[in-house]
Amino acid sequence: MYKYKDTKINLIKGDITKLEIDAIVNAANNSLLGGGGVDGAIHRAGGGEILKECKEIGGCPTGEARITTAGKMPSKKVIHTVGPIYKDGKQNEEEFLYNAYFNSLKLAVKNKLKTIAFPSISTGVYGYPKNEASSIAIKAVIDFIDRYGEIDEVIFVAFSQEDYDLYYKKLNKNI
Ligand code: AR6
After folding, report:
1. 2-174 — its CATH code?
2. Ligand 1 centroid to 112 CA: how many Å?
3. What atom in ligand 1 is closest to the CA of residue 41?
């Protein structure tokens, strides 16, 4: 749909657990032991193997990323990242959210994964304002491509029509 330098950037509406892609990103929490939202959906669809690996990893600081199997899902790997809990915008939320995207991409490249799908990290239970969050997501991806390239396709997965429309507008403006 869009192309930035050598990387395809796509926007789809739907369930990230269904994608046949190298890596899907999970909006996890610091424990990596599962939860609701997209995290719950990923653990349910992937099965117990994911939780087993997450337990071995032993957690993940906010803004960082860790990788596991995708279990029974059609993707190859799950990259678990932890976005910030939004309080008032003055707790470095923007930097943490940016890092969550950027470090997920770094980990993908390190593992030779070429295609990656992101949910809208932190904008559910963690309460990050959707408008700002989508701008940060797009900026982190563009910056990563500028700095490293090495990724063939990035898919933004919107779970609601509202998110889809937001990303659609921003991608048209920025890419
Ligand atoms: N596919 C794609 N996107 C989804 C799916 C899905 N199957 N399900 C939900 N979303 P959230 P957060 C969207 O709350 O805000 C968990 O309990 C959802 O509509 O999943 O980062 C974790 O364990 C929203 O736009 O993640 C943490 O404790 C986006 O995914 C906490 O929630 C993110 O919403 C993390 O909160």
Report:
1. 3.40.220.10
2. 26
3. 7
